[in-house]
């Protein structure tokens, strides 16, 4: 979830920064960080601390709550698949579960 949150937060910061016509360097100067750090945040590679996020919201003159409006968490596809597999396994016998386990284990070993 952190990666998703970082990316969405970074997009919002970049969007508002551009609307306010600030460069990354100008925003960085206002909040006393490096322009490179602003770039990392905007690309979702770094998650700003709460203190930094407060400074960004003040520099951009927007409420901090704006950054968290309309966030829609999307369950990663792999989690969905694991839940589907788990659901199917609940309907099988112990013997079948053992066979399926051995099958999966052999497939994974072949890929390594």
Secondary-structure map with pairings?
Layout: H1 2-19, H2 24-31, H3 35-42, H4 50-59, H5 77-90, H6 94-111
Helix pairs in contact: 2-3
Give a written overview of the molecule:
This protein has 112 residues and is mainly α. The protein has two domains: 2-68, Orthogonal Bundle (434 Repressor (Amino-terminal Domain)), CATH 1.10.260.40; 77-111. The chain is 68% helix and 0% strand. The protein has six helices and no strands. Helix 2 crosses helix 3 (35-42). 12% of the residues are buried.
List keywords for this structure.
2 domains, mainly alpha, 6 helices, 112 residues, 434 Repressor (Amino-terminal Domain)
Helix content: 55-70%
Rounded radius of gyration (Å): 22 Å
Given the C-alpha coordinates, what overall shape results?
elongated
Classification by helices and strands: mainly alpha
- Poorly predicted runs are none
In the CATH scheme, what's the topology name of the largest domain? 434 Repressor (Amino-terminal Domain)
**What's the total helix number?**
6
Tell me how many strands there are.
0
How much of the sequence lies in strands comes to under 5%
C-alpha termini separation: 27 Å
Question: What is the CATH architecture descriptor of the largest domain?
Answer: Orthogonal Bundle
CATH superfamily of the largest domain: lambda repressor-like DNA-binding domains
Any idea of the CATH class of the largest domain?
A: Mainly Alpha
